[in-house]
Amino acid sequence: MFRRFALAALPALFACAPAITHGPRVEPGPSLMLTGGMPRPLCTHWADCHGGATPTLGAGVRYGFVPPRAEAAPVLVGLTVPVLDPLGTELDAFVQAPAEGAWVWGGGALASVRHLMPYMEAGRMPAGGGNGWYLSAGYAHLLHNPLTDFRSQDGSYSESMARAPRWFAPGAGARVNFRGVRYTVFANGAFGSFVERIVGPAYGLDGGEGSATIDTRKRVRTLMVGITWEVPFRDVARRRNVPAPRPIPEPH
User: Fold this and answer.
1) What's the mean per-residue pLDDT of the chain?
2) Dihedral, CA atoms, 237, 33, 86, 225, nearest 10 degrees?
3) For a FRET experiment, which of 149, 225, 233, 239 has its CA 20 to 30 Å from that of 31?
4) Of 140, 138, 139, which is closest to residue 172 (Cα–Cα)?
């Protein structure tokens, strides 16, 4: 019973898994964004391979620094606040390699108190927010969260993470610009493992009572699919300043 409860609680107590939600093209200036995704287990039993991946829903801002010189590297800095876990606010820092055409690549990192994931991206994404696609790859380190540890009331049984989840995260995405809003559909895989530690009572052949520790390596096999909505600040301001339509004069 204890073990069943602990396994069910682990996904809810972990922070949202890191996900790459933008392409390798850095667009200039500030923008607002919303992102959401749903994990899908690639195994029969969710508790055996989730690795802490939970549905993600967040809002944030991004700022792209694009130098006027073509040989200089553009930089993107973003901040995303998870709706269900504000303490897990995520910083995204990305550097794009200098590029004159539509083909671009770069590397960055996602960091929060819950996880750390360096990543790289490459793809065809025209400047100016045009339609494009990209491939990505990262390596996620989920940091140990004490809230995921479970201990029975009498202290005879406990369950915790001897090693927090780590996984390789291949991914892909596509961006579509519709009426000034950039929609990015993304898919990120998670293929790795974590080590679960169970400490419980044990009895010897002589009838003596003690405790036993069992470490079990469990795999992570999950696919995160989601969408990001992003709109530049200038477009938001432009829409707010649109004058109201003038009333049509009635005929005399």
Assistant:
1) 83
2) 160
3) 225
4) 138
